[in-house]
Amino acid sequence: MSESLNIELFIAGDMDAFRSVYVAYIGRTLNFLTFLSHDENLAEDLAQNTFLQLWNSRSNINPDGNIEGYIFAIARNLLLHEIRSRAIHERFTEKVGEKENEPQEPQIDDTLTCEAIEQQILTLLAALPDSRRRIFMMRWSDGLSNKEIAARLGISEKTVSTQIHRTVQYLKGKIGDSFIVLCAILAIQI
Fold first, then answer.
1. Among 25, 112, 143, 168, whose Cα sits 20 to 30 Å from the Cα of 133?
2. 76 exposed, middle or buried (CB, 10 Å; 0-12, 13-18, 19+)?
């Protein structure tokens, strides 16, 4: 049985043909990934995932193409994806660690009711300048659009948008995730 015939059978979904492709290329794929990653455990996981992805994408393979190049491209892409994922995870973990070390103002407990969160928001709004508080309340309480607020106050829509954005950032900074939850519950469109 020739390799091209095995490839054609593999593309058609024949498990024996897949086993022959696997046996022919698993060693080279594992060596390739170990060389690039310097991590044998990661290389083994990625090699297995390479052949899983190869099986799942077999209908896209050109039977006359370079199967080894296709396998190595899958392996390389999986490794690059893993490296990116680990870098993102490390940055996130680092940021969380930095956040935990920062002194933080007390956050509203997530179990508080909407009314308690609204009361906290009103208390925080009292510390804002009158104009910013009025713009936010027109949006939040009265449900007016930026255009309607701008027309009523004789200011630009950009000013309204900026003031609302600043207020939202202020409230998120003081209240945290509870503010976002409240916005979702009340369907506030800020």
1. 112
2. middle
**Contact, 26 vs 47, CB < 8 A?**
yes
Distance CA 79, CA 67 (A): 18
Q: Note whether 90 and 13 are same-domain residues.
A: yes
The CATH number that applies at residue 21 is: 1.10.1740.10
pTM of the model: 0.48
Whether residue 167 is contained in a domain is answered as: yes
Judge residue 152's burial from the number of C-beta atoms within 10 Å of its C-beta, 0-12 exposed, 13-18 middle, 19 or more buried. Answer: middle
Q: How far apart are CA 57 and CA 70, in angstroms?
A: 11
**How confident is residue 182, by pLDDT bands cut at 50, 70 and 90?**
low
Q: Region 158-176: what's the mean pLDDT?
A: 83
Of 70, 68, 24, 71, give the one whose Cα is nearest residue 47.
Answer: 71
CATH number reported for the structural domain that contains residue 180 in this entry: 1.10.10.10
Structural domain of 55: 3-101
Condensed to tens digits (0 to 9), the pLDDT of residues 8-45 reads 888 888 899 999 999 999 999 999 999 988 889 999 99
Number of domains comprising the chain? 2
Say whether both 11 and 87 belong to one domain.
yes
pLDDT at 73: 92
CA distance to 18, 22, 81, 89, per residue, from 96 (Å): 44, 42, 22, 10
